[in-house]
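Much of our argument rests on the idea that a fold can be written as discrete symbols. In the encoding step, the backbone of a single protein was reduced to a row of integers, each denoting a local shape. This step matters because it turns folding into a mapping between discrete strings. For completeness, the protein is quoted in full, as a sequence line and a line of structure tokens:
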Amino acid sequence: MLLAIVFASSFVLFGVGTGFGGLQDILLQERATGGGPSENDARDEIKEHPNNAQGYRDLATALQNNGKSDESLEPLAKYVALKPTDIDAQRELAGLYLRQADTYRTQAIAAQVALQDDVPGTAFQPSSSSKIGQALASNPIDQALSTTHNAALNDAFTKMSTSYTNAVTAYKAVAKAQPRDPAVQFELAQTAEAANDLTTAVTAYKTFLKLAPEDQSAAAVRQHLKELEQRVSPASSG
């Protein structure tokens, strides 16, 4: 699982340098703070007019400006549901899901490292057939630590996967509305790869190359695409 966590986004975050940016740029983006709608005013507006999309838009903006990005996901998703033609908001939603996934990815790695540090395994322990080995194998402290760290790891990994999947769904909506935008296809491809949706990633990378064959990242994408295609259809490669 650690390898999946560490390398799921390796190409996404560190691989290519496209002229369009990419997920690394999205993760580094921060909304400007100051000004804008009030969180309390937005909540009051939603309470009075629960079907008014602007109230949810204002609340999402206010929460982000107050450093509450995770909390802003729900009202922004509600806004997008009410205003599906607002592609900028849909793209913003995808970016928030990506940042959320990156947070959970960091938590998962930390839990894995803690597990390895606190319960290093049996590689350097006495034989399990010996009395000392049997005593160590039933160490209640190790068992408790293993249970705690594994629970944290599984929880973070599950939340990370869900966030990536939500981001893919958002980017698919953007790509459907803007099928000729290579930047959207690139971001969809990277997000789908992070979500381990390799079929979607391959299709989006191919579309990106058709739309921007001369982009500075094209050569790297073509090479990476070959690797992904082999992973999607290993039998056909050999």
About this structure: Residues 1-11, 13-21, 122-126 have pLDDT under 50 and may be disordered. The two ends are 27 Å apart (CA to CA). Residues 2-30+84-233 form one domain.
